[in-house]
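The records we work with from here on pair a chain with its fold. Here is one such record, which you should read through line by line:
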Amino acid sequence: MDVVDNGVYFLKPDLYKLIKEVGGICQDSKERPVVALVPSIMDSSILWAIPMGDLSHRTPEQVKRLEGFISSPTSQLRSCFYHIGNTDKKSIFFVSDVLPITNEYIDRAYVSHGRALVIKNKKLIAELNRKVSRILSYEKNYLTSKGKPFFRQNIYGIYNALKKQ
């Protein structure tokens, strides 16, 4: 499947197997859509994808917790962990769960109102890209200094496995 920048997709279960193979943790048992952002600068066949969820399914306590992260000072990394924005509904973007993906792991497009959903809001895309860049930079620096990943999914472990395929 040809992936469109900022398109929303569902992933194949094989990606979650790969995450476990590289020592990452993926505790999400739901079939969750992801927004496929821009290709990696280092390898254009690898895209950065952010898992998404529906905000309306959250309890007031969960929304308050998310808003606590989002409203943190931008100097704090935690301010980049989540984002709330509109797609075809009010959505949560789980930015700190960002995944590298390739076309091979795309199962199908997320369809809304009879069409594949592509996010066109430039401010939303810019903010998601800013937050992803910050998460990836932190992960790379942490990995270099500590020798282990900071984020549970092992972002660069997945990335390196995809490069070998």
Summary: The chain has a mean pLDDT of 93.
